[in-house]
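Service request form, structural biology core

Requester: graduate student, group of Dr. S.
Request type: structure prediction, single chain
Budget code: on file
Notes: please return the result as structure tokens.

Sequence provided:
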Amino acid sequence: MAGMKILTRRTAFIALLALAACVELLAALHAQVHASESPSPAQSAQPAQTPVRTMPAYDLPEPTVAAASGGTLGAARVIAYDQMPAHATGNGGESRTIAHGTLATGESVNLHQSMQVVGATPNPLHVIQHSEFIFVREGTLEFQHEVAGKVLTEQVGPGGVIYVAFGTNHTLKNVGTVPAQYFVIAIGGDAK
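Core staff response, request fulfilled:
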């Protein structure tokens, strides 16, 4: 326990705000997905015959659909795991693209799922030009980030969230005993 950091009230408050923002974003996306499931009053007398289909994350809608929705991500849809393009990372892990583009409300978003193997060499500290929320699904991640010229180190496990502010010099390292699996939601800036 000597190496663990105590969570300050300020840090806990910021983490709760970040989590609330993410929950709100996911609820909005969930609402968009399910809005199409309710038939309009004119259709309610007819049984729903909507076919089930999935669309790859990289398959952007036709320009007319994008223009109608106000964003490049287009219509609500399901993105199945096997339709997320995967690529190997330089340190033996894997990254899967889920979605990237602009929401109808104007925010640029890039969502991907990553896996970092045990003992992998992390990326060097780097600066991002967007904001990120990292949701840890499995494993333990060490989050190194620079604050006022000092590199701070924090750890987070399953169910935890890392908030990386715009312009933060940071890196992630798997310090657990199993592959670390996590989702990254990049918002704004260069997140397209």
